[in-house]
Design a protein that fits this description.
The structure is a single chain. With about 230 residues, this protein is an all-alpha fold. The chain has helices at about 5-35, 45-55, 60-80, 90-115, 120-125, 130-155, 160-185, 195-225. It has one domain (about 5-220).
């Protein structure tokens, strides 16, 4: 077997894996979001945040979201390196989303570790993990999600149904704007942007994974019939 044949075989094997990775990542994102502790708006900001950091579901929620972020990164990297016939613009968007996904996963590490700052937050001391998370989120979320939105729209019917692409793009933009509007601008009434936008984006990732599996199965069935 020559090098080109080995590369093609490896690529075909990868094409069967990345859809499952994206499906799992989408499901884990929804689970992590569902486990996320709610903020008590009746408390002062510092106390409300500290209460969330100390909640029993903080670690499982954000561990799930971190694994999900890593799954999005792996799936996007495999997708952009695959034989999926993306347009030049869509492939560029996929590359930007991959870079954004790497930063999003890194931000997720600090997001998860923010529970360690609970006591410091209440004492008015420095909160390195929480502060890094909130600072990164304002920049990283839009970078990742706007690129995902562009990919969802520019890929048209290549990855999944265009309507699902539009819904996913809308969700990605909503999720990407949430840290700035809720965290930075302190518009608490927009907190719904995190679960709603994130779930719609996760739905798109799951949908393109399912679509890839269905189309791959159809191609293999067709090839077997020809033989």
């Amino acid at each position: 077997m020559d090098v080109s044949t080995e590369a093609a075989t490896s690529r075909r094997a990868g094409d069967r894996v990345w859809p499952w990775v994206l499906i799992a990542a989408g499901v884990l994102f929804v689970i992590g979001g569902a486990l996320h502790p709610n903020e008590d708006s009746s408390l002062p900001d510092a106390e409300a945040t500290a209460e969330m950091l100390g909640a029993a579901t903080w670690i499982p929620s954000h561990a799930s979201l971190l694994v999900s972020a890593i799954g999005f990164l792996i799936g996007l990297l495999a997708l952009v390196r695959s034989d999926v016939p993306l347009s030049t613009a869509a492939r560029r968007a996929a590359w930007v989303a991959t870079v954004g996904g790497a930063l999003y996963a890194l931000e997720g590490v600090f997001h998860l570790a923010a529970f360690a700052d609970e006591d410091a937050l209440l004492a008015g001391d420095s909160t390195p993990f929480l502060s890094t998370h909130t600072t990164m989120a304002v920049v990283v979320y839009p970078l990742f999600t706007f690129a995902v939105a562009a990919l969802a729209v520019l890929s048209r019917a290549t990855l999944t149904h265009p309507v699902i692409g539009i819904v996913g793009a809308l969700g990605a933009v909503i999720f990407g704007l949430a840290p700035a509007l809720v965290g930075l601008a302190d518009i608490e009434s927009l907190v719904w942007m995190f679960p709603v936008g994130g779930s719609l984006m996760a739905l798109w990732f799951t949908a393109i994974g399912v679509t890839a599996l269905i189309r791959g199965s159809a191609r293999r069935t067709g090839a077997s019939a020809v033989r």
